[in-house]
């Protein structure tokens, strides 16, 4: 557990025990407690605690909640005990010396200056005085705005890096007396310096007012009423970029309510909005008018550590939303982030819940994982958490099979390496057909595995069995028919090349290879080259040279076949008539010349072709 040294805490304890009078009562609240606002109202602040296990180490974090409901998290080792209570870096002893209060941040207060009120007897007993909530903060200030209060240069850089379309939209809301906050994935991307073209915002207005503000400014304005009620989406062309914007309405109570009440309701709505996000790294909000970062769940720290963690307890999140497990896999594949141990354990325990997800939804998530930058990372997580046993059971079945016939090698690892190598050979962006073929090319090995008397392992006809298995699995996942047939064909043909290595093919054999591959020939080239994962560099080089030779022969035969298929502009009878010759060798040479001329110069009319033939005859007679 991360903490101060034991001796330091022990010295604090002895000092407090020896101090005269009543020892202080330290009240702390969990990260989801709803009682802390009452403590804030009574004392001016509240203490929250959070326990987590990271990389096998138990960590305790202490948060200081201010009147605007923001929480400044810190580690326990930076806190100390005093006769007034637990002192965090965000607290200080008041000038009166008998009460703790919030510190003033560097350059600005963490909250507006607080007028002091007369302490009640209850306050004096607890060693604290009440502080009223701030009432002069701007109406667009969102929940937790002081969590990362402008001092972090990364936050300022993230705000400065937003595209001009954000400032344009902000100006329209500010003119209407409303605030605008960037939320979700857009904040993470801004912090990473890679803002995308899909931006999410939250404002305290209602849908009708949002429509009035963006009227005539955006295109394709749409109000969502079913799956995401209270959301207005639109498109906006800015310079050469086309942006997709989503604005979520978090309306405040009517104006007959106090400003404090309206702000509290909006802050609570924003907190609820962020809590519904899949991961803490996407559960942050960036204030646009005042550059502030709302980070109620430690998303910035998780972003630095490159981990995936849910804002709520993982088991509760998965129980309410089983597809979340597939989105964790997709997130790992896209970002390369590792889920925290609690989330991984929950996925492993509740893996069977994925069977409740419709096949079409599973297909979409698997496709997104396969098209990500690191699909093998997501697939490993899919297998390790036992999700694959329910959505892609053929993959974990490869884990203990052997490959390369007589060499015992984990085909599961071989498959993932083939996938990585196939991705490296892509030339026109992510290719789902190629990647699925690489993933499924050896799934027939478990059913065809045989061990001979000499101890060698064989997988005869596993490409044919694998073709049928691939077709069946992809149909179960509701993939389109053409993609299914293309993947099945590649799985069936992925071993054909080894016949070329074992014995030199004739030209007809090469032509059959090309004919059977059809429009998939390019992908078959990539899959076959990726399928070489041997550590024997001499063997790998030999295979590469052999396939280079095969591709050269395919190209040569293609040129030759095109040449043979070309018809000259003059047929045999016309050539004999123009030259006054009979059938024979001379006619064959003339016909060959006219065909080459057609390939070189293209179609010609009869007169031009006749003149060219006579000129050729004249050159030969000289």
Keywords:
622 residues; 47% helix; 27 helices; alpha+beta; elongated
Kindly report how far apart the N and C termini lie.
Answer: 100 Å
> What is the residue-averaged pLDDT?
80
Q: How many distinct beta strands?
A: 19
- Helical content class: 40-55%
Calculate Rg over CA atoms.
Answer: 35 Å
Question: Looking across the biggest beta sheet, what order are the strands in?
Answer: 11-12-13-10-9-14-15
**What does the largest sheet look like?**
7 strands, mixed
Question: What percent strand?
Answer: 5-15%
By DSSP (H or I, 4+ residues per run), the number of helices equals 27
Q: What's the overall geometry?
A: elongated
Structural class: alpha+beta
Oligomer: single chain
Structure, described:
- The protein is an alpha+beta fold.
- It is built from 27 helices and 19 strands.
- The longest helix is centred in the last third of the chain and has 29 residues.
């Amino acid at each position: 557990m991360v903490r101060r040294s034991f001796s330091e805490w022990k010295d604090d304890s002895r000092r407090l025990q020896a101090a005269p009078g009543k020892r202080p009562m330290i009240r702390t609240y969990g990260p989801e407690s709803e009682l802390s606002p009452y403590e804030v109202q009574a004392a001016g602040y509240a203490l929250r605690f959070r326990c987590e296990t990271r990389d096998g180490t138990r960590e305790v974090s202490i948060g200081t909640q201010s009147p605007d409901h923001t929480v400044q998290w810190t580690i326990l080792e930076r806190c100390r005990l005093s006769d007034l209570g637990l002192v965090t870096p965000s607290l200080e002893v008041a000038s009166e010396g008998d009460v703790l209060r919030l510190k003033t941040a560097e350059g600005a207060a963490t909250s507006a200056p607080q007028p002091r009120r007369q302490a009640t007897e209850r306050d004096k007993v607890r060693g604290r005085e009440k502080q009223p909530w701030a009432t002069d903060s701007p109406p667009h200030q969102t929940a937790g705005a002081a969590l990362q209060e402008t001092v972090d240069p990364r936050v300022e850089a993230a705000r400065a890096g937003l595209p001009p379309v954000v400032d344009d939209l902000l100006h329209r809301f500010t003119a209407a007396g409303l605030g605008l906050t960037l939320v979700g994935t857009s904040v993470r991307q801004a912090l990473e310096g890679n803002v995308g073209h899909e931006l999410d915002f939250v404002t305290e207005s209602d849908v009708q007012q949002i429509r009035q503000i963006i009227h005539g400014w955006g295109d394709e304005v749409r109000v969502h009423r079913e799956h995401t009620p209270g959301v207005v989406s639109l498109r906006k062309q800015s310079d050469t970029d086309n942006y997709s914007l989503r604005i979520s309405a978090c309306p405040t109570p009517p104006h007959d309510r106090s400003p404090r009440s309206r702000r509290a309701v909006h802050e609570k709505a924003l907190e609820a909005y962020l809590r519904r996000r899949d991961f803490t790294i996407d559960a942050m909000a960036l204030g646009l008018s005042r550059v502030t970062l709302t980070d109620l769940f430690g998303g910035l720290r998780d972003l630095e550590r490159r981990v995936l963690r849910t804002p709520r307890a993982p088991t509760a999140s998965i129980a309410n939303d089983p597809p979340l497990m597939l989105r964790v896999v997709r997130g790992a594949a896209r970002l390369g982030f590792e889920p925290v141990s609690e989330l991984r354990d929950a996925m492993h325990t509740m893996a069977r819940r994925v069977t409740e997800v419709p096949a079409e939804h599973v297909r979409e998530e698997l496709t997104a994982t396969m098209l990500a930058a690191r699909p093998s990372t997501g697939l490993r997580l899919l297998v390790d958490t036992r999700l694959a046993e329910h959505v892609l059971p053929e993959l974990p079945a490869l884990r203990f099979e052997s490959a390369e016939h007589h060499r015992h090698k984990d085909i599961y690892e071989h498959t993932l390496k083939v996938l990585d190598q196939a991705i490296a050979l892509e030339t026109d962006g992510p290719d789902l057909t190629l990647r699925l073929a690489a993933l499924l090319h050896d799934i027939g090995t478990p059913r065809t595995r045989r061990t001979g008397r000499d101890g060698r392992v064989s997988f005869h006809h596993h490409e044919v069995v694998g073709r049928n298995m691939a077709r069946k699995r992809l149909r179960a996942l509701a993939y389109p028919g053409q993609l299914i047939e293309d993947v099945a064909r590649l799985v069936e043909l992925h071993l054909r090349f080894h016949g070329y290595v074992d014995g030199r093919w004739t030209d007809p054999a090469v032509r059959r290879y090309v004919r059977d591959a059809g429009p998939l020939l390019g992908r078959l080239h990539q899959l076959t080259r990726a399928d070489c994962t041997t550590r024997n560099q001499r063997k790998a080089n030999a295979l590469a040279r052999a396939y280079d030779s095969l591709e050269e022969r395919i190209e040569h035969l293609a040129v030759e076949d095109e040449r043979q298929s070309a018809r000259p502009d003059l047929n045999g009878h016309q050539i004999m008539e123009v030259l006054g010759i009979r059938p024979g060798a001379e006619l064959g040479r003339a016909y060959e010349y006219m065909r080459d001329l057609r390939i070189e110069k293209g179609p010609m009319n009869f007169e031009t072709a006749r003149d060219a033939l006579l000129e050729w005859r004249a050159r030969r007679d000289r």
